[in-house]
Every structure is written in structure tokens, then in C-alpha cells.
Amino acid sequence: MNFDGNTTASWTAAPADARTESPTTKKMASKPLDEAGEKLAAEMKVFNDVAAELKASMDLSAKYEARVQSLTIAAAELFGLAPTWTAFYREILGADGVMKKCVCAGPEMANFECSAEHSKLLEMLTVLRSRDLPENDPHEQQRMITVRIPKSLHDSICDEANELAVSVNKLCISRLLQKVDKSMIPTSSQKRRGRRPGTVATKGNEPEATDDFS
After folding, report:
1. Do the beta carbons of residue 68 and residue 99 sit within 8 Å?
2. Using CA atoms, how far apart are residues 128 and 59, in angstroms rounded to an integer?
3. Cα-Cα-Cα-Cα dihedral of 164, 170, 176, 180, to 10°?
4. Phi and psi for 15 in degrees, rounded to 5?
């Protein structure tokens, strides 16, 4: 941190009891956090209400072009209201999001993922991730995955993250948000090890679960 001015202040250390924070001081220190939490909760409620209204108003029996237009309009409206990038992803691109409701799986989805409209959705998500928004969404738990990779690949990822001036975590999330060409996914006749995607280990009441993908 940078401090302006060259004024030097002198002070005498007070006894430990005198330096103990009073209840009033503690209350004042926690107030900004409480206000931030209340603000986020209010923004999240507005966002969720609008998302629910948009989903309810969609005609899922309409032609493909009309459904894509509805998806684009919904994304643009929720983009302006999103309190976290996670909320936008969940309601637009997530497993139960608008995209999966408006675009059918299979050839239709493959066609949409190559479209300018889909690229625009990813651009919106990138903009939200670039903003100074809360890292965690209070409406969604965090999950962890453990991926075994060779040291050479790990070194390359770390080098790329350093070149881009981002964390390895942010770089990996960015990669995961991109669609992978299925022809680039190797097939294997070996039995898959570890838990299948979506399964959760039960160890007490831990808030996070780890999926080990092999």
C-alpha cells in the first residue's frame, strides 16, 4: 500500500487490556462486511427473480431461431444484473440454465456452440469474471477436483499463468469454460478409476467435495 505524506507519528504502547477491542469497535469493523452481504443478497434476489420470469416466459416449442433470440435477450438482461459471474453462468450456461432449455442437445447444440451467439455468451461471462465481483456465490457451494497431470504439463500451465499475470486457478477455470473438440478427447478401453462425475464423498458435513477424475 502507498501512503501519502511524510508525517511521523509517535505513540506509546498501551497495556494489553487497553488495546483490547471494545464491543463498539468490533461492531464498527463488522458493519462494512454486513452491508456488503446485505447488498449482495438484495442483488441476488433481484437477479433470481428476473431469471425465473425470463425462463417462465420462454416458448420452448418455437423454431430454433426464435429460441436462440430468446436466449440472447435473456443473457443480455441477466448480464446487467449479475451480482457474481457464477450466477450468470448458472442461469445461462449451467446444467439447468437457459441455454440447455432453449437449445436441444445433439446436432442443434453442436451448431449453436459454433455460432456468434454462443461466442457472445462466453464474452459476457469473461467480462463478468474480469470485474471486481464477489469470488463466491452464496447460493452455490464450491467444489474441488483433483486432476493428476505430468510435471511437464503442470510447468507449462504455470508458465502460461505467469505470462498472462493470472492465477493457475483462474487459467484452469477459463480453459474449463471452453468447449472441447470431441475429436481431441482420447478414447480408452481401460476401466475408469475414481468416482464418477457428480458423486460426492461423505466425510461429515464438509462444505466442499473433491472429485478425482482419471
Report:
1. no
2. 28
3. 0
4. -60, 155
